[in-house]
């Protein structure tokens, strides 16, 4: 049981390049999330998916696209990277349903855009 | 969604009890209060969650007054390994409105030998 896995762990891009961050979970969770964390800051939600085939924008969605490929996988794409997207990106998953729920986070992807 | 306010940092000596308070004045009726811990270069990790009164697990206690406008995370007898950033998060149950989740800047706890 690996929990939430993210690839790659590190990435350096030049301005204008594109890339896709991959996330997968093996806990049979319905909900998945993408966050970014800038130095000294808390996490800000980029996109959220309540179930396969559905996605919603979070607080900072501009410059990103997502795909909920299936129940396990949720990818984040940067079409044209900008220096302002230099950050650590975390993927998370959780159950969805009545009652409170906890999010399980992946180890993060450190992205630098030059 | 309810905005949260926490102290930016706290210091404590090893072996002491630490209480971190979070205010969430506009919490909604169906919102839960969740605390996460984050170590450097790692993703946040769930600590405890509650709706009202007191919740206790093997690592922490969570106190929520009747008006639910604040909550207090209590860590008993902290050790050096408890040095981390602690986030208070107000979450709607059943996932409704989850696209509005915001963690805030958290409280950096430093435990001193």
Give the topology.
The complex is a heterodimer of chains A (114) and B (113).
Chain A: E1 4-7, E2 10-13, E3 19-25, E4 31-37, E5 43-51, E6 54-57, E7 64-68, E8 74-78, E9 87-94, E10 104-105, E11 109-113
Parallel strand pairs in A: 2-11
Antiparallel strand pairs in A: 1-3, 3-8, 4-5, 4-9, 5-6, 7-8, 9-10, 9-11
Chain B: E1 9-13, E2 18-23, E3 31-38, E4 45-50, E5 53-56, E6 61-64, E7 70-75, E8 84-92, E9 107-112
Parallel strand pairs in B: 1-9
Antiparallel strand pairs in B: 2-7, 3-4, 3-8, 5-6, 6-7, 8-9
What would you say this structure looks like, in words?
- The complex is a heterodimer of chains A (114) and B (113).
- Chain A is mostly beta strands and 114 residues long.
- Chain A has strands at 4-7, 10-13, 19-25, 31-37, 43-51, 54-57, 64-68, 74-78, 87-94, 104-105, 109-113.
- In chain A, the strands form two sheets. In chain A, strands 2, 4, 5, 6, 9, 10 and 11 form a seven-stranded mixed beta sheet that branches. Chain A has a four-stranded antiparallel beta sheet with strand order 1-3-8-7, with no helix packed on it.
- In chain A, a hairpin with a 2-residue loop joins strand 5 and strand 6 (54-57).
- Chain A is globular.
- With 113 residues, chain B is an all-beta fold.
- Helices cover 0% and strands 48% of the residues of chain B.
- Chain B has a five-stranded mixed beta sheet, with no helix packed on it.
- In chain B, strand 5 (53-56) and strand 6 (61-64) form a beta hairpin.
- The relative contact order of chain B is 0.34.
- Chains A and B meet through strand 4, strand 5, strand 9 and strand 10 of A and strand 3 and strand 4 of B.
């Amino acid at each position: 049981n690996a929990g939430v896995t993210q690839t790659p762990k590190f990435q350096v891009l030049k301005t204008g390049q594109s890339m896709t961050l991959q996330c997968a979970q093996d806990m049979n969770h319905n909900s998945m999330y993408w966050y970014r964390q800038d130095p000294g800051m808390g996490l800000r939600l980029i996109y959220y998916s309540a179930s396969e085939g559905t996605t919603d924008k979070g607080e900072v969605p501009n410059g990103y696209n997502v795909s909920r490929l299936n129940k396990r996988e949720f990818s984040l794409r940067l079409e044209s990277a900008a220096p302002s997207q230099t950050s650590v990106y975390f993927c998370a998953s959780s159950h969805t349903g009545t009652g409170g729920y906890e999010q399980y986070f992946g180890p993060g992807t450190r992205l630098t855009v030059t | 969604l309810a905005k949260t306010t926490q102290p930016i940092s706290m210091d404590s000596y090893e072996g002491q009890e630490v209480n971190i308070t979070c205010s969430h004045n506009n919490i909604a009726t169906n919102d839960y209060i969740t605390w996460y811990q984050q170590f450097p270069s790692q993703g946040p990790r769930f600590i405890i969650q509650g709706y009202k009164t007191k919740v206790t697990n093997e690592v922490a206690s969570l106190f929520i007054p009747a008006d639910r406008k604040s909550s207090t995370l209590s860590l008993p007898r902290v050790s050096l390994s408890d040095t981390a950033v602690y986030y208070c998060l107000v979450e709607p149950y059943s996932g409704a409105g989850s696209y509005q989740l915001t963690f805030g800047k958290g409280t950096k706890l430093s435990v001193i030998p």
